[in-house]
Amino acid sequence: MADLPHVSNWVHGSHTSPTSKRVTILNPATEAPIATIDSTPQEAVNEIVLSSLDAFHSGKWSKADSSERFSVLSKAAILLRSRIPEFVELETLQTGRPIREMRAQLARIPEWLEYFASLARVHEGRVTPFKGPVVNTLTRSPVGVVAQITPWNHPLLIATKKIAAALAAGNVVIVKPSELAPLSVLRLGALFKEAGLPDGTLQIICGYGRETGKYLCENAHLAKIDLTGGLATYKAIAPNASTNMIPITAELGGKAPVCFFPGVEIEDAVKAALFAGFIASGQTCVTGSRLLVHDDIYDAFVELLVKRVTALRVGDPTDDRTQIGAVINKAAVERCSSFVERAVQDGGTILCGGKPTSVDGKGFFFLPTVIAVAESSHLACNEVFGPVIAVIRCSNEQEIIRVANMTSFALGASVWTNDFTQAHRVAEQIEAGIVWINGHHLNDPSSPWGGFKESGVGKENGIEAYESYTKVKSTVINYGVKPVWFDDEVGNARYG
Ligand code: TXE
């Protein structure tokens, strides 16, 4: 243990001295410790926030020309693209996700830096309609020091998309990555420095959520909090943030319905279900964890689904052939087991999987599992965040729509049909922040990402994310209206 590499916080352009208390990071596929990180205490968090505020007020980044922001973020994209293999290796090691998935995902992450670099360069203010010979210009400026609380399931993707949006808009960013998989995010500090980002503009601080994360989110000097995590975490940070008048963007859980209608090729539908349900071992906020299948195709679909799920290769994530890697930790395995147990108590039928497994006797693995359940059962309504999916038989289109909308989540949903009028009709009626038609989990930096109901508030990606990191000012210019003075005879008239 003494030989484990320690990666300390990244603050003001360098790694700081390690804290006395540390957190150990495990490889979920082998249970072996791979590194330690800092556990940042409250005084240190508060100092970092105050010095970040100084960095913001220095104007080095907050007042930099948009062309400079464009060039730094573009350079960061080039650097990241040139280092994808090393990040892929690290991401696989700390998350237990199959290397083939990490290659595909990480190859796209530089696009987020390119997109927000471009947005910084081209985003324009507005002139709004105004009564009389008056011009109102709307301008946007950065909000200040922002906290980003990021998770372990897509560590680099989620941190990069938040960092890119916030930096493009001119803010100073403090990222608190997940204590379960922080190592790739910690590498971004040096990468941005090399790209030319002024020291103190991106700070990366580590520790447990209930400690370091909490201390950070309680700090009244923040201008915004951007969280991807659980509803419980949102509820823990929201009261203080509200008292301190700090807005929150929150990307939380989901229970995405995947709706299959007659006419789709069964083979394609099953492939779609495998991708939607089992990518990242089901540990994504848009996991297609409820398959809502029309009665006309249910039997054929389920028969082939079970065959294909049973054949998925579970194993060592570093092996190119592995399709299902580990889940993040022991608690995740236990959570999957308890969902299976409860589904059976509710009258569900396990069609395949249903239990933990291991590789050479080690690791946090759970067999890909499909359970036929009733629409209102516990498994059908609650998020597992693991490879356990529910399949539900529905008798018609209206029933599919009704069931799709019956959980407290509303993040992602997909509709699979060859009938384009049906596709639009159904998509329009599904409550979700993102509805895919004949696709699932399609993502692009320009496409707003975020849910309704208990899935969160606000959006990542797109102009919406960029603007959420700005504050708007109206500058109202009178170029011809004769002012009405307070003591004029017409009285206390105003323009509106
Ligand atoms: O998330 P946590 P967990 C959902 C999913 C999952 C559940 C729990 O439903 O089952 O959340 O996962 C930090 N103050 N998603 O426990 O704890 C924590 O350190 C400040 C959806 O892993 O919310 C980490 O950096 N910060 C999701 C981050 O919050 C706190 C991704 C997320 O961890 C904190 C992950 C506190 N009091 C989980 N408590 C998605 N949308 O992709 C924790 N944190």
TrEMBL record:
Keyword Cytoplasm: no
Protein name, entry field: aldehyde dehydrogenase (NAD(+))
Region of interest called Disordered, as start-end residue ranges on this chain: 1-21
SUPFAM superfamilies from the UniProt entry: ALDH-like
InterPro entries assigned to the protein according to its UniProt record, in alphabetical order: Ald_DH/histidinol_DH, Ald_DH_C, Ald_DH_CS_GLU, Ald_DH_N, Aldehyde_DH_dom
Pfam families to which the protein is assigned, alphabetical: Aldedh
Residues at the active site: E251
UniProt domain Aldehyde dehydrogenase: residue ranges: 17-474
EC number: 1.2.1.3
Family according to the record: Belongs to the aldehyde dehydrogenase family.
Main enzyme class: oxidoreductase
Reactions listed under catalytic activity: an aldehyde + NAD(+) + H2O = a carboxylate + NADH + 2 H(+)
Source taxon at top rank: Eukaryota
